[in-house]
Amino acid sequence: MSCTGKYAAASDFDQFWCLSIDLTSPEVVSEVDRMLELAASDVQSSLAAVGACSCAMPEWATRLAKKLNIIDAGVVYNCSCGPKLSPEARALWLAWLENQYRLIRNQEVDLCGMTGSTFPAWASAEQSLTLWSYEQIAINRIMRTGI
Questions:
Q1: Which string of b and e fits 43-79 if b means at least 16 CB within 10 Å?
Q2: In a domain, 139, yes or no
Q3: pTM, full prediction
Q4: Domain limits at 18?
Q5: What is the structure's pLDDT at 61?
Q6: What is the 3 state secondary structure string of 41-60?
Q7: Cα gap 2→47, rounded to integer Å
Q8: Number of domains the chain contains
Q9: pLDDT of residue 25
Q10: Is residue 136 domain-resident?
């Protein structure tokens, strides 16, 4: 996924927030697009922090980026065509957004489809107890690293 541009369209924003805004009006669409473009920087900063700007993301991850872009635009930017949120609702959405960005930055949610930081892993150090096991350890290291 790229870390340039917005991840959602004005129609996605309208549909998510159930606003029924006038999508035939160039002014309204332009205003929503500006909000989405600005809000995308928050998503992009989290993606860039974990090197996810250049990976091929699975479909669920691109949908998550779109969702974060839409919610960020609706919550952070208070424009006339956006959702009318109470201060309490806005605070809850902001806390949710910050948590999602934290999960991405800490790689608890792995957007590149590898393994996140909470993926179970097991490793142990190889020990050389005989001359032959020392040779096997050297062969294993060469096979793993090419060195």
A1: bbebbeebebeebebeeebeebbbbbbbbbbbbbbee
A2: no
A3: 0.77
A4: 10-105
A5: 93
A6: HHHHHHHHHCCCCCCCCCHH
A7: 9
A8: 1
A9: 96
A10: no
